[in-house]
Design goal:
Layout: E1 3-8, H1 14-24, E2 31-37, E3 42-48, H2 51-60, E4 67-73, E5 88-90, E6 93-101, H3 104-113, H4 125-136, H5 141-150, E7 154-162, E8 169-174, E9 179-182, E10 187-190, H6 193-196, E11 202-205, E12 211-214, E13 219-222, E14 228-229, E15 233-235, H7 251-257, H8 259-268, H9 283-289, E16 292-297, H10 299-316, E17 320-324, H11 325-328, E18 339-345, H12 351-362, E19 366-371, H13 377-381, E20 384-387, H14 400-419, H15 425-436, H16 438-446, H17 449-461, E21 465-469, H18 473-488, E22 492-496, E23 513-517, H19 524-535, E24 540-546, H20 547-553, E25 559-563, H21 571-590
Helix pairs in contact: 3-4, 4-5, 8-14, 8-16, 10-14, 10-18, 14-15, 16-21, 17-21, 18-21
Bound molecules: 5-amino-5-deoxy-1-O-phosphono-D-mannitol.
């Protein structure tokens, strides 16, 4: 989603504004721009498409100054063209905005009646007009900025240049994160600390409703009531080195291959080295006493929750409801009196998941975040945090974050089963020992990459592709389809294998690829019956199974991807690997930008 960088310094800032934007590319965007105060006033450069287009604009018509703001835009209102790119300027004001201004239409109408003419179709432009309107009424720069922010409804992180020569950044947040960075003789604003990492790690996180006036040597923060407040300055827990691709061609490829290490790191953090039992920290008392669990997330994280439902119900006898955050928050859900709510999110900033978490908190539920970003909004607001130690995930497609979520949720289900007396110590230890084999199993699963690469052209030519599975492999089928469609733009659907004959089988034609996820388990034979039904109608069956399962598929299957033997809870984690590889190599065959697929954002901070 949109990214914001601001710098006020005693040195020129343009190049570093662009550097900050490059670090925000991973969030997903479709245009970019910068504005600086240069002695003659505010000047800006903007371009549709990638930052490289903005760099060309800047090369042919350079601008610089010692105070500036920059933005990557993920279009919501108005097409992703140059006119709609941020910064938006009106009079002596330029702004960048992340979020959605819900009342922008009445505000525009009101300002149009006062003679304001709008240059874009965006919701954001109205912010610049509002600030200028208040400047024209004689308010000071800060007062004009605050008066404008006061009128905004919806979600926003805003940074502004106000006044033709002012060496000051104005910022405000409500619903979208914003950090202030402390440099040596210069100050920064960023939509996350990662963007500022090359410049400083000393940051202050603005809280909901905060506004800030940032000058070259200090920052003045007000809370939503307008009172001056002190917010803690902390050292951001991130690498200053931009996660780079190393020897890989793409972040997605690199992150797929990082999974053995990410899983080893994550699992180790949850096992007590003395007792060899799961450690659930602050989440343990909530999980022990809950009479029901609600697991809420979006996208791939929702599919982690869906796998966890099978585990918690089978191992803990605990009723689990899973919900897509955007549905949950608006359907007046009946919440349990003594329930705990799990919020699963890589970024910890997904707007719908954050809103659902706040809803549960207001309802008095215990809230637990399963999160990859330890300084995110959800991390800061939930009662307990279970971290996934996947490391920064830059590719838009969730790969290592997904399997790390599954690893944490597996540990969580085992720990809960233990503290609730459903599994003995020995049973839990046997499960943990199976999970500890994951780094090795995943490494073996990565060796299917050549086979996945060889299958990719078949998928790339297909009109549509199906993924099917039963039990814990049903959410994996959904994940396989989601991964493929987001990076290749091919129509792909996941189904519960037993559900096909109730409708979707009508879509099977001669040669339609059907990826069947069926390692050996109690349901495998049933899935194989469904494969027969597909094969009889001409489907091109691609099986993902293990050596024993492969025996059952031989006659009817074009391709069999054989994974190592998987015991305990390891199956869904290991089977994720060939699904990711199929998506990656199909995208590679088609030449799509799998790290930044069209229309997608890494962190979805608007609803
Ligand atoms: O940051 P989150 O885990 O909350 O993000 C949730 C989804 O937006 C995310 O998983 C999305 O579906 C991925 N692009 C899938 O690969």
């Amino acid at each position: 989603m949109c990214g914001i960088v601001g710098i006020v310094s005693d040195r020129p800032v343009s190049a570093r504004l662009v550097e900050g934007l490059i670090r925000l590319e991973y969030r997903g965007y479709d245009s970019a721009g910068i504005a600086v105060v240069n002695g003659q006033g505010i000047v800006r450069r903007r371009a549709p498409g990638k930052i490289v287009n903005l760099q060309s604009e800047l090369n042919s018509a350079p601008i610089d100054g010692t105070c500036g703001i920059a933005h990557t835009r993920w279009a919501t209102h108005g097409r992703p063209n140059k006119e709609n790119a941020h910064p938006h300027q009106f009079g002596s004001v330029a702004i960048v905005h992340n979020g959605i201004i819900e009342n922008f239409k009445p505000l525009r109408e009101e300002l149009a009646k006062c003679g304001h003419v709008f240059a874009t179709q965006t919701d954001s432009e109205v912010i610049a007009h509002l600030i200028q309107y208040h400047l024209d009424k004689g308010l000071s720069e800060e007062a004009a900025f605050l008066a404008a922010v006061e009128r905004l409804e919806g979600a926003y992180a805003v940074a502004a240049l106000v006044g033709d020569s002012n060496q000051t950044l104005f910022a405000a947040r409500h619903g979208s994160p914003l950090v202030v960075g402390f440099g040596d003789g210069e100050m920064f604003i960023g939509s996350d600390a990662f963007a500022l990492a090359p410049f400083t790690k000393r940051v202050l996180y603005l809280e909901e409703g905060d506004s800030a006036v940032v000058k070259i040597n200090d920052v003045c923060v007000r809370d939503k009531a307008g009172a001056l407040v002190t917010r803690e300055v902390m050292t951001a827990n991130i690498s200053a080195v931009m996660a780079d691709k190393g020897n890989y061609r793409h972040f997605m490829e690199k992150e797929i291959h990082e999974q053995p290490e990410a899983l080893a790191r994550t699992l180790a953090a949850y096992v007590d080295s003395d007792t060899n039992l799961p450690m659930l920290g602050d989440a343990a008392p909530f999980l022990k006493s809950a009479d029901r669990l609600v697991a809420i997330a979006c996208g791939t994280a929702f599919l982690s929750a869906s796998v966890a439902k099978y585990w918690f119900e089978a191992l803990c006898g605990l009723h689990v409801e899973t919900d897509i955050a955007s549905e949950f928050r608006y359907r007046t859900p009946a919440l349990p009196d003594h329930g705990a709510a799990l919020f699963i999110s890589q970024s910890g900033e997904t707007a719908d998941t954050l809103a659902a978490m706040r809803y549960c908190k207001r309802a008095g539920m215990d809230t637990i975040g399963v999160l990859n970003a330890p300084e995110s909004s959800i991390a800061r607001e939930t009662s307990a945090v279970l971290r996934t130690l996947a490391g920064p995930e830059i590719g838009v497609a969730s790969t290592k974050a997904f399997t790390a979520q599954l690893a944490v949720l597996a540990m969580c289900a085992l720990g809960t089963a233990h503290i609730r007396g459903r599994l003995s110590e020995d049973e839990v230890k046997a499960h943990i020992s199976a999970l500890n084999a994951l780094p090795k199993l995943v490494q073996q699963a990565l060796q299917t990459k050549d086979q996945c690469e060889a299958i990719a052209p078949t998928l790339a030519r297909a009109k549509q592709i199906f993924f099917i599975g039963r039990g814990v492999y049903y959410p994996l089928a959904l994940e396989g389809a989601l991964k493929l469609k987001e990076v290749t733009y091919l129509p792909a659907e996941g189904y519960a294998a037993g559900e096909l004959k109730h409708g979707p089988i009508a879509l099977i034609e001669e040669g339609t690829p059907v990826v069947v996820i069926a390692p050996t388990d109690v349901l495998m034979e049933k899935t194989i019956s469904n494969v027969e039904e597909m094969a009889a109608r001409g489907a091109n069956v691609i099986a993902i199974t293990d050596a024993a399962g492969a025996e059952h598929f031989t006659d009817r299957t074009e391709n069999i991807i054989i994974l190592p033997d998987m015991t305990g809870l390891t199956g869904p984690i290991v089977t994720a690997i060939p699904l990711q590889l199929l998506a990656y190599y199909t995208a590679l065959t088609l030449g799509t930008n799998m790290d930044q697929p069209r229309n997608l954002a890494k962190s979805v901070t608007v609803e």
